[in-house]
Give the backbone structure.
Amino acid sequence: MKIATVVSSNSHIDYIARVIDSLDVADPPTVDDYGFGELVWIDTNNGSGVVGAVYNSMLMNPDYAGYGPRLSSKPELETFSPDFLNEQGCLLAIVLLGTMNENGGDATQGIPTPVVPVGQDVRLLTEDEMGKFHSRYLQHLFLPVSDLEFHFVLLNIQLRI
């Protein structure tokens, strides 16, 4: 199930994706579909993709800073400029955990070498794909902690637990 589209990155293993909404698809994902820790797959345009985990969410609300008057009322905006109403949204921070073919084969855990292009679809991993991704690594989960910023995030999570 497609849940988001890649819009940016903070580093080679830290990507930002915008959750798709009703202007993108007829049946957008619910908040339960993209919670903390959800495993996702992102295509890299070469027959394989990267596996990641959602580790943060950020709400976008440009209206919060818009104190000035509007030229049109909300009902008029729905008619004349529906995308203007849709500026609010949710961003997901995704840390990459490894690579895997779309069919769940050739899974590796570690820092992936491909760069994910902007605009790539982010979809949830199926239970079968999760099993295949972890089947070779039942004893250990190798997280890419070489990025200092991500290492700091892990340290904060461990201190709070």
